[in-house]
Amino acid sequence: MAKLRSSRYRSGFVSIVGRPNVGKSTLLNAFMARKIAITSPKPQTTRNAIRAILTGDGWQVVFVDTPGLHKPKTLLGERLNDVVRGTLREVDAIVLVLDASAPVGGGDRYVAEEVLKLGTPVICVVNKMDVGGPAVVAPQLAAAESLGEWREIIPISAKTGENVAKLQQLLVDLLQEGPQYYPDDMVTDQPQELLLGEMIREKALELTREEVPHSIAVRIDEIVERTDKPITEIEATVFVERDSQKGIVIGKGGAMLKEIGTRARKDLEWILGTKVFLKLQVRVAKDWQRDPRELQRLGY
Ligand SMILES: Nc1nc2c(ncn2[C@@H]2O[C@H](COP(=O)(O)OP(=O)(O)OP(=O)(O)O)[C@@H](O)[C@H]2O)c(=O)[nH]1
Ligand SMILES: [Mg+2]
């Protein structure tokens, strides 16, 4: 006899967690087949819980990308971990991401312990399987298995898309009956200001090194849609922690800031569907990562 499948609507929240830089945000974007979250080779890129909504035929998954769980060194770091823990309590399933291109270590065990104590179904993903081939991936899968009891363990590449559809199906199969949380055409609930600010921050991360990326925050000051032409005028401030960093971000004769603006403008125009005039300024918010008032002001 054919197995009966419930025709009721199914939905759920799925959190993507892991230590910094394993590819959580890249995976979120792969599920969505578009860029929702910014990514970078530098750890601790993501600073907010970012929701992306994938709606299928009779189901809806709300993915929640999270900051990398890590040993915090600053107040910002503590806040980021709090964001992850807050998210974990509210979701129906968890995707734990490991990195096939780096040894499974203390950082991964720390995250595994955090998720195991919740009793929520966890799918363990070994990401970046495109790096190094089967000889590298096989021992990583074994290491993943020794980390804990997972519903499934699956190797994927968020970058090439390998096995991402398979992982998506595993998650859809985990969904319980539930409401459609968001309208069909909604892909994220991020406020537009945040989305635009993140695109600018991504370019600043791309172009800076060492401790500078961690010290960067972006605030959108003004968005003006012109009524006479399809142009949006955006003013934004790039915050850094010290005067020396301000010099770096502005660059010789303003070259660095100009490059950040040029790169960001392309993303902003894609999001807004209009031409964009972008005006950037750089300001110092002294040691903002350790200052509760500054953190609040910057939205963390
Ligand atoms: N080769 C390869 N690189 C990947 C893959 N997935 C992500 N990356 C790269 O890994 C780096 C980190 O990716 P992110 O998606 O920003 O990682 P994250 O886990 O969100 O990082 P945080 O937000 O800092 O915690 C970026 O340079 C990505 O391009 C993959 O499947 N293969
Ligand atoms: Mg991220």
What ranges have pLDDT less than 50 throughout 5 or more consecutive residues?
none
The share of residues in extended strands comes to: 15-25%
Major sheet description: 7 strands, mixed
Mean pLDDT: 96
CATH class of the largest domain: Alpha Beta
Work out the helicity level.
25-40%
**H/E element sequence:** EHEEHEHEHEHEHHEEHHEH
CATH topology of the largest domain: Rossmann fold
- The count of domains is 2
Structural class: alpha/beta
The unique ligands bound to this protein are: guanosine-5'-triphosphate, magnesium ion
Structure, described:
The mean pLDDT is 96. With 300 residues, the protein is α/β, with parallel strands linked by helices. α6 (192-207) runs antiparallel to α9 (255-272). A hairpin with a 3-residue loop joins β2 and β3 (59-65). 37% of the residues lie in helices and 23% in strands. Strands 1, 2, 3, 4, 5, 6 and 7 form a seven-stranded mixed β-sheet that branches. Strands 8-9-10 form a three-stranded mixed β-sheet. The chain has two domains: 10-177, P-loop containing nucleotide triphosphate hydrolases (Rossmann fold, 3-Layer(aba) Sandwich), CATH 3.40.50; 192-297, 2-Layer Sandwich (GMP Synthetase, Chain A, domain 3), CATH 3.30.300.20.
